[in-house]
Amino acid sequence: MVVVICAIAIFAPIIAPNNPLDVNISQKFQGPSSRYWLGTDNLGRCIASRLIWGTRASILYTSFILIIMMFIGISIGLISGYFGGKIDHIFMSITNVFMGFPSAVLALAITGILGPSIKNLIIAMSSVWWTSYARIIRAMVMETKQKDFVQAAYATGCNHFQVIVKHILKNISSSIIVLATLEVGNIILAIASYSFIGLGAQPPSPEWGVMLNDGKAYIQTQPHLIFYPGICIAATVIAFNLLGEGLNGKFIGGGKYE
């Protein structure tokens, strides 16, 4: 399922039957046809094309946020867990300050200050969602650095950088992959939610949250405008969660990271 979703995202320009931004008022609220596979919305735009391009947008935005927040979390977790002492105290104090406020509230505040746009939403979410991963990775590093193979690396003359990269990071990489995969669904859902309330992607962007917002005014007469993007969000979140659980069982042996 995840492979299919990613393929749709990559080949959206080829798969989509129409331009997702083309407006044709005379064709609004049309039913499914050979030209408009799932019909048209209130502006006569092809729903199928907007859903397909919405898949591309959601995966792209999620990738940006995931890469940034995992980079911050991994960097802080590695440094804090490896060196300990004052460095650990400083980094964990900063982390605790961020964790003292609900991440959703902080993201809303940052987005409100910077202004509503998908770029600012990416900045806001990346700035506050890294904290739990910094703590988890710190714990992994503190446990791993006590292992015999790490002590053997010291004995062979490896410096700190070599030990961190070649031994510790390599050893916990499978756990990091599981963490990242499990987080994808949460990020997709959050992006759609923020876009739905006007703080993420903006109209006429073909993004699932924007489509939900556009369709809410017609929920009584055209419920499919809400149904289709809702199904896409649910299916994608479930698919990545199942993938994460599968990887968790394979790499971690059934243990679960929350």
UniProtKB/TrEMBL annotation:
<feature type="domain" description="ABC transmembrane type-1">
    <location>
        <begin position="55"/>
        <end position="244"/>
    </location>
</feature>
<dbReference type="GO" id="GO:0055085">
    <property type="term" value="P:transmembrane transport"/>
</dbReference>
<feature type="transmembrane region" description="Helical">
    <location>
        <begin position="90"/>
        <end position="114"/>
    </location>
</feature>
<comment type="similarity">
    <text>Belongs to the binding-protein-dependent transport system permease family. OppBC subfamily.</text>
</comment>
<dbReference type="InterPro" id="IPR050366">
    <property type="entry name" value="BP-dependent_transpt_permease"/>
</dbReference>
<dbReference type="InterPro" id="IPR035906">
    <property type="entry name" value="MetI-like_sf"/>
</dbReference>
<keyword id="KW-0813">Transport</keyword>
<feature type="transmembrane region" description="Helical">
    <location>
        <begin position="225"/>
        <end position="243"/>
    </location>
</feature>
<keyword id="KW-1003">Cell membrane</keyword>
<feature type="transmembrane region" description="Helical">
    <location>
        <begin position="176"/>
        <end position="197"/>
    </location>
</feature>
<keyword id="KW-1133">Transmembrane helix</keyword>
<dbReference type="Pfam" id="PF00528">
    <property type="entry name" value="BPD_transp_1"/>
</dbReference>
<feature type="transmembrane region" description="Helical">
    <location>
        <begin position="59"/>
        <end position="83"/>
    </location>
</feature>
<dbReference type="GO" id="GO:0005886">
    <property type="term" value="C:plasma membrane"/>
</dbReference>
<keyword id="KW-0812">Transmembrane</keyword>
<dbReference type="InterPro" id="IPR000515">
    <property type="entry name" value="MetI-like"/>
</dbReference>
<keyword id="KW-0472">Membrane</keyword>
<dbReference type="InterPro" id="IPR053385">
    <property type="entry name" value="ABC_transport_permease"/>
</dbReference>
<protein>
    <submittedName>
        <fullName>ABC transporter permease subunit</fullName>
    </submittedName>
</protein>
